[in-house]
């Protein structure tokens, strides 16, 4: 009888464990989570035009050219006081707002003093769809007394727009 009692207790515990497992599984729910992330933004801040807007009489502005990230021009100035102004357009054709981070213009170190380069300011914020223009003025210094032996001076510039921080 004692063996039967132990057997009954063991069977009772096994049955209880089985019932608890079935009860737990009937009250448990699994959640399946699936997700995908995709970058849809597009960075496209670029140069879209360069035009000679003012050219002193007798000067040659050449045919300025541009790609999406560079411009080239070749100004031919005749006499002191001559000036050529190039207008450059930069547009934000992408889907990400931009802000101006860096502007660096350097003139050739060994260049002549009789040619001056000056630039106008650029728009700091260039939001999606916006554009900005700035001028590059090339001037043959007005009060030059002699024609220099070296007659060219090179300008190099970097303009950098970066992703605008969202605050």
What can you tell me about this protein's structure?
By secondary structure, the chain is mainly beta. It has one domain. Helices cover 15% and strands 38% of the residues. It has a four-stranded antiparallel beta sheet, with no helix packed on it. A three-stranded antiparallel beta sheet has the order 7-5-9, with no helix packed on it. A two-stranded antiparallel sheet has the order 2-3. A hairpin with a 2-residue loop joins strand 2 and strand 3. The N and C termini lie far apart (80 Å). The mean pLDDT is 89.
Summary tags:
167 residues, mainly beta, 4-stranded antiparallel sheet, 3-stranded antiparallel sheet, 1 helix
Low-confidence stretches: none
Q: Can you tell me the number of structural domains? A: 1
What is the tally of helical segments? 1
User: Which band does the percent of strand residues land in?
Assistant: 35-45%
What topology emerges from the helices and strands here?
Layout: H1 2-26, E1 45-55, E2 65-67, E3 70-72, E4 83-92, E5 98-107, E6 115-119, E7 125-126, E8 131-140, E9 155-163
Antiparallel strand pairs: 1-4, 2-3, 4-8, 5-7, 5-9, 6-8
């Amino acid at each position: 009888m004692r063996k039967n009692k132990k057997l009954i207790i063991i069977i009772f515990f096994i049955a209880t464990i089985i019932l608890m497992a079935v009860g737990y599984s009937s009250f448990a729910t699994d959640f399946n989570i699936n997700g995908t992330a995709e970058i849809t933004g597009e960075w496209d801040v670029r140069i879209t035009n360069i035009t000679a807007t003012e050219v002193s009489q007798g000067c040659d502005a050449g045919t300025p050219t541009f790609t999406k990230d560079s411009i080239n021009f070749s100004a031919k100035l005749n006499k002191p006081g001559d000036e050529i102004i190039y207008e450059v357009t930069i547009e934000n054709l992408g889907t990400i707002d931009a802000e101006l981070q860096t502007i660096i213009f350097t003139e050739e170190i060994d260049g002549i003093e009789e040619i001056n380069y000056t630039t106008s300011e650029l728009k700091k914020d260039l939001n999606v769809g916006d554009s900005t223009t700035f001028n590059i003025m090339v001037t043959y210094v007005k009060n030059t007394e002699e024609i220099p032996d070296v007659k060219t001076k090179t300008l190099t510039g970097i303009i950098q727009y970066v992703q605008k921080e969202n605050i």
